[in-house]
Amino acid sequence: MPLFLTIDVNGIEPEAGAPASGRLISGDPKFTTWNAEEADGGLYAGIWQSTPGKWRIEYDEWEFCHILSGVSVISEEGGEARTVRAGDSFVLRPGFKGSWEVLETTRKEYVIRL
Predict the structure, then answer these.
(1) Which CATH number among 1.50.10.20, 2.60.120.10, 3.40.50.620, 1.20.1600.10 corresponds to the domain 25-113?
(2) Least buried of 7, 71, 77, 107, by fewest C-beta within 10 Å?
(3) Calpha distance 38→26 (Å, rounded)
């Protein structure tokens, strides 16, 4: 197995998904995930995409995100709403609660650590 991994959707079978039951707020968002890396100890990396819609989020894990395209609004419960778009990078830490609203189909690179 090579130790250098390029994150590329070509050749990766995408996983389809949607917000978990009871979390949908509005719209009909559909997720596509290309998980390029799954390492021992709960580390994941790849590309995720969602069509427009809004749902509640709760993070038990740590996640680094880099937005590749689209526009989304991430609102922290009891805090501010942040608009993210292509070129933006951020971390959502364990315990983050709020909502994710996709205004324009959004694609991001992610690294998740459980």
Answers:
(1) 2.60.120.10
(2) 77
(3) 31
